[in-house]
Automatic annotation (TrEMBL):
GO terms assigned for molecular function: monoatomic cation transmembrane transporter activity
Regions crossing the membrane: 28-48, 91-115, 152-175, 220-242, 254-277, 328-355, 375-398, 435-458
GO biological process entries: metal ion transport
Key words of the record: Cell membrane, Ion transport, Membrane, Transmembrane, Transmembrane helix, Transport
UniProt-recorded name of the protein: Trk-type K+ transport system membrane component
Record membrane topology: Multi-pass membrane protein
Pfam families: TrkH
Length: 474
């Protein structure tokens, strides 16, 4: 008996050491492996007959697409989410979007913590890289961070606590409105929690067949969901910083200030643009009263952060409005959030670089702080890789479907930005198109920085500098 116990302990220790070694060599690859493994597990569950409401087996492609959309908290669907899945399938999806909303590297940190039963330096580094992606590429950095290594334990607690508190609060606020809408007590209860989880994780799945159409002009429902999406999209480091320093805003980090300022600015500008462009479109918001139209436009602007809920048929929107939402979805939300895209701070850094160049300044400066040049290089890399992924997927789907460019581009950017807004193209795609769109969701959620770090064997060190020469630019 003692020999068997020692053998089991040794095997367990070897497994923990193996996982620990893998995480040490490449935290990004470890995180991606876990993330991909979760997709495989959820695909298997959704492909089971028990997951279908009629007991039939869902096709492997549809199960895979739904699993990727769930784990990547995107919200795009190729089946009717309200009527296709059984109770078992809906529970699996709810668990999947909760796990996916935590974040790739934060999730890997928690998994590593479970395996190793400790929150050591390696685990802290992995969680820190989720709050600051430059840690993945450059290792620990010296400039001020939104979350420092010593605070990672607090961050992980904040992730779990904030998700729990916010979702319960949202569910409580939504519950009475669902009762008023005619749902029975049980339906209103589980749908309120479904909406709350889907909103905070920025997934955008709706549990009822009509979606948000019955609440198109309901200020209470739209406001509560928009607030939940906003909190999920600003990022856990921002929530963590605000929970500790809201009494003294001046001491907030540049990351927090940039995230909040850029996010609010984009929401306001997006709402104005959508309202102006769709004001007279009776197929979307033009038939509503003058008070409801700005509300719906603002709600849609918030949803482009990565929310995915839509009270209107986006296939009826003007091409100009779709292009505005394309740009907003490509940017996405805050770093280490449930949102996708290149992130609002990436856009802010690019604009700061442009302003500094226009003024002739050598450094990028904001909020009385200087931003180092390596952050700009990272921002440019993220933007270019993101644009390349979107362009490649768009060209493929255009050739495959012959669908209009504005519809294809919209759904591809929605997939990359894990937004979930759709013109209806995703449901009409053949299997090859669904797989490409699923791969786009995966790349957008994992993140271009994490993906690039995972593919790089090691950071290249060069002990010499070549002669400098300036090419003509512009």
């Amino acid at each position: 008996m003692r020999t068997k116990l020692v053998s089991r302990t040794t095997a367990s220790a070897r497994f923990r050491d193996m996982v620990d070694d893998f995480a040490t060599v490449s935290p990004a690859r470890f995180a991606i492996a876990i993330f991909t493994g979760l997709v495989v597990v959820l695909t298997t569950l959704l492909a089971l007959p028990i997951s279908h409401v009629s007991g039939e087996q869902t096709s492997l492609t549809d199960a895979f697409f739904t699993a990727v959309s769930t784990i990547c908290v995107t919200g795009l669907s190729v089946v009717d989410m309200a009527t296709h899945w059984s109770t078992f399938g809906n529970v699996a999806i709810l668990v999947g979007l909760q796990v996916g909303g935590i974040g790739v590297l934060t999730l890997a940190s928690i998994m590593g913590l479970v395996v190793s039963r400790r929150l050591g330096l390696r685990t802290r580094l992995m969680a820190a890289s989720d709050s600051n992606p430059s840690r993945i590429h450059h290792g620990p950095v010296s400039e001020s961070q939104a979350i420092r290594l010593g605070e990672i334990g607090g961050l992980l607690a904040t992730v779990a606590l904030s998700a729990l508190v916010i979702e319960i609060a949202v569910a409580i606020l939504i519950f009475p409105r669902l009762l008023v809408a005619g749902f029975d007590g049980w339906s209103a209860t589980w749908q309120s929690f479904y909406y709350a989880a889907s909103a905070f994780t920025n997934t955008g799945f709706t549990p009822n067949a009509d979606g948000l159409e019955p609440f198109k002009t309901d200020p209470w429902m739209l406001t509560v969901l928009a607030l939940a999406v906003f909190l999920g999209s600003v990022g856990f480091p921002v929530i963590f910083a605000l929970s500790r320093g809201w009494r003294n805003p001046r001491r907030l980090s540049v990351h927090v200030k940039l995230t909040l300022f850029t996010t609010v600015s984009l929401i306001v500008l997006g709402a104005i643009a959508i309202a102006v462009l769709e004001w007279n479109n009776t197929a979307t918001i033009g038939a509503d009263d003058a008070v409801s139209r700005p509300l719906t436009a603002t709600f849609l602007s918030v949803m482009t952060r990565s929310g995915g809920f839509s009270p209107i048929d986006l296939s009826q929107a003007n091409g100009s409005s779709l292009l505005v939402m394309d740009m907003l979805m490509f940017v996405g939300g805050g770093s280490a959030s449930t949102a996708g895209g290149i992130k609002v701070t990436t856009l802010a850094v690019l604009f700061l670089a442009a302003f500094a160049e226009a003024r002739g300044d050598e450094d990028m400066q904001v909020f009385s702080r200087r931003i180092p040049i390596d952050v700009l290089r990272l921002a440019v890399s993220v933007t270019l890789w993101g644009a390349t992924i979107v362009a490649g997927a768009t060209i493929f789907l255009l050739q495959l479907t012959k669908a209009p460019l504005d519809f294809v581009l919209f759904d591809v950017i929605s997939a990359f930005g894990t937004s979930g807004l759709s013109t209806g193209l995703a449901e009409q795609l053949p299997d090859a198109g669904k797989i490409v769109l699923a791969a786009t969701m995966w790349a957008g959620r994992v993140g271009t920085v994490t993906l690039a770090a995972a593919l790089a064997a090691a950071q290249r060190r060069q002990l010499f500098k070549r002669p400098e020469e300036r090419p003509i630019v512009g």
